[in-house]
Amino acid sequence: MAEKAEELVAESEDLIYVVDEIIKHGDYVLSQNPEMLPVLKEAGVVDSGGEGLMTVVKGAYDALQGKEIDYTLEGVAKTGSGANLDDIEVEEADIKFGYCTEFIINLDNPLDEAEEDKFKEFLHSIGDSIVMVADDEIVKVHVHTNQPGEAFTKALTYGSLSRMKVDNMREEHHERLIQNAEKRAKEQAEAEKKAEAKKDEPRKENGFIAVSVGEGLDEVFKSLEIDAIISGGQTMNPSTEDILNAVDKVNADNIFILPNNTNIILAAQQAEILLEDKKLIVIPSKTIPQGIAAMLGFIPGESPEDNKESMIESMSGVATGEITYAVRDTVIDDHEIKEGNIMGIGDDGILAVGEDLEATTIEMIENMVDEDSGMISVYYGEDVKEEDANKLVEKLEEKFPDVEVECYMGGQPVYYYITSVE
Q: Which fold has domain 203-315?
């Protein structure tokens, strides 16, 4: 939007025209947002931060034109932290193709380009989320479909099958919702119990809150002496109320909060304004690695102001990379991306695109490492096996012998890997 604004200002001095065109451009970019991240596409939503920005700009435009502003809130839904498990309605996800189907074709004869395209076209006709990698001897296939049998039958025309696997995604989603609800209820009960116990403890000078997603990442923050963790993520951004509830559980005069997501910083800043009996210090961390680095920059005994400066300086030396997959064909940052491609996303855009998870991750990290880099940290997600993460680390150690490589179980959804280079 900023670049578009610069173009328009150079063309015209008519402020009404310029802002109107900026809004049109912003709405278009926002509509394309779900194509960039699978989690947004699957949830059927756009980026909440982007939508909020557009609402602010449109409000300014209306005010600029002298329009009367309607301050009525439209159906704000609150998710109270005190919900009981029995009150939670578990809904089945809107999953178009219900079976995650994987297999390997042991080819009778190598496929030429036309045959590969024809087979891939067939897979598109019965499903989506297609990943197909072929060489002269085998073809590895991943597809979401409602007819796994048809996929197997078609594949058998090219050779024999091995490592066949079919998972019912609707059933898995249903079970995961129940498990998550039970986990949240248990965590809430434990948190309330701990909060009650802490009320009797002497009030300390400094406390810490972090927004995190994934059991492993939660443990990393706990090891850094975080007092309270708020569950969050791309489609589950905590509200200002959630943050205030977490602050209430931390018995300290000064509380540092790490949002670890661009979309959560504003909610944290609003909570900072609303607090009266405690001082909330917002460290504007945009990623999990930035939040971890910020905690390492805290200096006991220093003032909150000096520590805020130290923590921000500490996180500024960290580069973040995240590995996910594309849900459809698109073009981002001059990268042509096909449905099912693995994407490496850095602080400033796309760093790598490919079909192989490990190779794309290594390429992304190559684009992050420079001559001053001293450490690579890898946090593997819930869809990555520990042995695969260890293999990746071994290759990184071979490729970057002068850089220390550390690996942690992050357990995060959506992103196969979250990495940092410092």
A: Rossmann fold (3.40.50)
Q: Is the CATH code 2.40.160 the one for domain 319-421?
A: no
Residue whose C-alpha is closest to residue 3's, from 31, 15, 21: 21
For the domain spanning 92-201, the CATH number is 3.30.70
CB atoms within 10 A of CB 169: 16
Extents of the domains making up the chain? 2-64, 92-201, 203-315, 319-421
Q: How confident is the model at residue 48 (pLDDT cuts 50, 70, 90)?
A: low
Distance, CA of 141 to CA of 75 (rounded, Å):
44
Longest dimension (CA), the chain: 74
> Length of the chain in residues, anyone?
422
Q: Is pTM, for the whole model, over 0.85?
A: no
Return the axis-axis angle of helices 48-64 and 15-32, rounded to nearest 10°: 160
Please give the mean pLDDT across all residues of the chain: 84
Q: Tell me, what's the pLDDT at 329?
A: 84
CA-to-CA dists, residue 418 to 47, 186, 381, angstroms: 19, 27, 8
Question: Structure tokens of 188?
Answer: 């809430």
